[in-house]
From TrEMBL:
Record's protein name: Uncharacterized protein
Taxonomic placement: Bacteria, Bacillati, Actinomycetota, Actinomycetes, Micromonosporales
Length: 74
């Protein structure tokens, strides 16, 4: 079961500028998540994710898959 904190972390990594090609370490992922939460807050991260799914659903689905696998590995 995913809780609200998990959702926030997922959304924050999704809206970060990290890319799969960078193969970020767990420390880099944590830092990016922290920056996005500080910058946008919970509502801002969720809104940015929703906008991406509305504007670019095909790439948003791919990015969400990368986000989830990256967080599982971290």
């Amino acid at each position: 079961m995913i809780n609200a904190m998990d959702d926030l972390v997922i959304e924050a990594l999704f809206v970060s500028d990290l890319q799969p090609s960078q193969r970020p370490t767990a420390d880099i992922v944590r830092a990016a998540v922290d920056r996005m939460i500080e910058r946008y807050g919970s509502a801002g991260c969720a809104a940015a994710v929703a906008a991406e799914f509305g504007d670019h659903p095909e790439t948003a689905v791919q990015r969400m898959g990368w986000v989830r696998s990256t967080l599982a590995a971290a």
